[in-house]
Design brief:
By secondary structure, the chain is mainly beta. It has no helices and ten strands. Strands 1-2-3-4-5-6-7-10 form an eight-stranded antiparallel β-barrel. A two-stranded antiparallel ribbon has the order 8-9. It is globular, with a radius of gyration of 16 Å.
Length: about 140
């Protein structure tokens, strides 16, 4: 799907979850983010954007071919008047033998690189790490 040479463009459904080891934590309380993820790769360079209702971050990074392929990128942009910066590292999930209707997926981690307002009068601190996955949207 991604390679370090050639051009590709794809849109993914992105979901991120807090890394809380307490198994009694409600699944709904683990949500960190929900977005669309547009990835454009051109000869190992990654660009695109991650976006939702009323916000978006521009992406810049790189693709490393292999099995699994590796994507490193940073998203940055102004949201509600404040700079947001997040760093992402993910892997392309290889095709699983005997998998039934396997949807192409990305799995990885995201870290909030700088603090920003949380929209409720507080601050979302830097350094928070969450796990994320993306599934390829189809036309």
């Amino acid at each position: 799907m991604f390679s370090s040479d050639g051009v590709s463009e794809s849109v993914w459904t992105y979901r991120s979850l807090l890394n809380d080891p307490d198994i009694s934590t409600s699944f709904n309380n683990l949500e960190f983010g929900l977005a669309n993820l547009r990835l454009i790769t051109n000869n190992g360079v990654l660009t695109g954007k991650i976006y939702g209702d009323g916000w978006s971050l521009e992406l810049k990074g790189s693709v490393q071919g292999g099995t699994p392929g590796t994507l490193w990128f940073q998203g940055s942009g102004v949201v509600s008047g404040s700079l947001w910066v997040y760093d992402y590292l993910c892997y392309v999930v290889p095709h699983i033998p005997n998998g039934v209707q396997q949807v192409p997926a990305l799995v990885g981690s995201v870290i909030r690189a700088i603090p920003h307002p949380d929209g409720q009068g507080g601050t979302s601190p830097a350094g928070v790490v969450a796990s994320f996955y993306g599934v390829l949207q189809t036309a």
